[in-house]
What does this fold into?
Amino acid sequence: MGLSPQAIENRLERILLRVQKPGRYVGGELNQVVKPWDKSRTHVALIFPDLYDLGLPNLGLAILYDGLNRRDDVLAERAYSPWLDMETLMREAQIPLYSLESKHAIADFDIIGITLPYETLYTNALNILDLAGIPLYTSERGQEHPLIIAGGQSTYNPEPMSPFFDAFVIGEGEEVIHDIVDIYQDWKDSGGSRQALHEQLAHIPGVYVPSLYQVSYLDDGRIASITAQDDSIPMPVVKRVLPILPPPVTRFLVPSVDVVHNRVSVEIMRGCTRGCRFCHAGMVNRPVRERPVAEIVQAIETALECTGHEEIALLSLSSSDYTHISELVRAVNEKFAGRHLEISLPSLRIESFSIDIMDQLKSVRPSGGFTLAPEAASERMRQIINKPISHQQIMDTSRAVFEHGWNSLKLYFMIGHPSETMEDVQAIIDLCHEIMKEGKKIVGKKVKVSVGIGTFIPKAHTPFQWVSCDSVDQVRQKLSLLKQGLHHPNLKMTWNQPEDSLLEAWLARGDRRLADVIYRAWKKGAKFDAWQEQYRFPLWMGAFTETGLDPTFYSHRTRDLDEILPWDHISSAVQKNFLAKDYGWSLEGRSRLDCREQCYACGIVPTFTELRLQTAGADWKCP
Amino acid sequence: MPYRIRLTYTKNGPIRYSGHLDLYRIWERAIRRSHLPIAFSRGFHPQVRISMACALPLGFTSQCELIDLWFVEPVSLDGVQVALALVLPPGLEILQTQAVDEHAPPSQTQVRSSLYQVTLLDPLDFTWLDGQVKQLLACPEIRRVWREKPYDLRPYIEDLECLSEDDQGLPRLSMRLSAREGATGRPEEVIDALGADATQARVDRIALFLA
It folds into this structure.
């Protein structure tokens, strides 16, 4: 047993007034669920390994918190990473990481679920375990320690974090979390060994238990083989998906301090049929499933009743592709106009229809300005990345944005796409100027075009999983060209330093050996790597040097198509040969249109044939 | 049936770590949940019309906070109290409701002083602390610096005394400090001037005195 909740509270009272924003560390929010500890059979801690301000609005954890707390036999509570000032004082006062609801030490929970939505949270995840007083390596944990599991989008390549977690959830968590709890409960009653628990967990569809797989390497560092412990262990581990989206969460926690998104979030659709080749989310979240308009409107209504929020976000990867978008916007307008609400509808396509939608939302105040994401500025480049929008279409849409009364427009591009040349980068500059000039004609001198520049990072399970990143020098040259070219009073460019994206580049396609680099970087003090001012590049380079691994092996190397990739035993159900073919098409500049219209046989339908039988024919947007 | 109502409410528990601006949002959302006919300000970004008196420093609890609410139609005192009680977050509890003339000055300008009860978390000798209190009160002026500005704390202390220890043997103080605009006495400044650690104290506001 760790420190008692009372002892933790007493110690906390003495440090809270010495940290910034103590409201992050106290819980007590409206709609938090507090259950009697002793009457709950299984205690689950759900952890977002970054600051409360970012973690609280996370929809994935909100779904699990709601789902688990609906069970009578389960109690689920939350924790987040303490900021540096708080961590120092907690360590000084010997306060272990605790849950916000009941202030129990995290080590006293049965199951600890950490979400890993992106790679730059990895060192924070280690820090979470350390603050909880739990051994970092699975191999060092005994019968008395909680089960440590992870989920979230970055677990599609779990390998760099594999020695630290007992199990990873691959795919959607709504159902599998209950399977894990059930197995855990039976195992606990049986008094079995941890190894036995691992084997039982491995049989749950969508659960990957890394300790049951062995990886061997060739002399050149590539993988020779990935094998399962025995034939009963699944190979590959296929992701979990829900046949139909369940009713959305409506009882959101309402924070008592300001956080990044103070809003009700309703996912209107999951998955995307567009197939942009750089897009991890678009590949791994298939098939597309939509929620009915009535269900969405009802969920907003209930959530507003429960929270009193003044902002609503309708989330999806591509709002314009939601079949009933017009009907939804009309219904939202009718129902919520005059209530002083803001609605955000991100990810609208570049077409005039998007402007009609935003226009309609004006009566409920659309939040923010207008954002268009061409991702690349030359038509050639857009064919390669499979975002085939014509120049004409971009210009027409931009013009329409200005004509409909917006003075500012935000454009988003990536540099570093495969086979990108300086001409393609110049095209970004030219396009921005052309749009800005059109804007000037329509709205005058006050026109503002913001240009966000991201750096492309190849991700596992995408058609670009084999390609090399641009070198730091290449990125620097491209950025410097952009900075010169976009220097203009009506243009505003934002970008990241070339080194900033390297960490993500190494980890996104890393293998198991990177775990040692992560561990050493953490030991040297790496944490909050997602925070630009906290990310310390030299320290990571030092960690690589100590292990003798070459970072460029992970980031700046083109893989052969027949190379065994570190995540080959994890399946998103989109087949490797489909990805390879799509990569080939990209090299030929061939694009694939929306797969709602024509099936390109990515592998989803045959993998989940039985699951699809549980749905009505049109529920999946696969033809 | 009034259009403007003043509520006296508590701020206890974890919500004491929410600052003044956060508290404004907390009230705004509670009012939205209550469906009471609250008035909105005019302008491009209408805000609910509420006004709070005398910001409570972060971490302090209170048994006497004041908030005024404006409505677009007459409401009953009981109706408001009941509707809000159902939707307020833990820690905020309405103790009293009172009708206020719509055009009366804001309570912020009416507050003259605040009464605080302070519990020090570290045991201290009662006689020593009592001596410190008497010594401090005897000073004609107490020169201090707050946010880089020098000032005299003494005129802000209207009353200060040592109370008997609480049931866990912790030392307690009672202090009535000026709370006029531009002349606010801060309990943490008094604690510090007494030679105790202001971060190791529990401060409860127990009364506001209005003109």
Chain B touches chain A through 28 residues (CB under 8 Å).
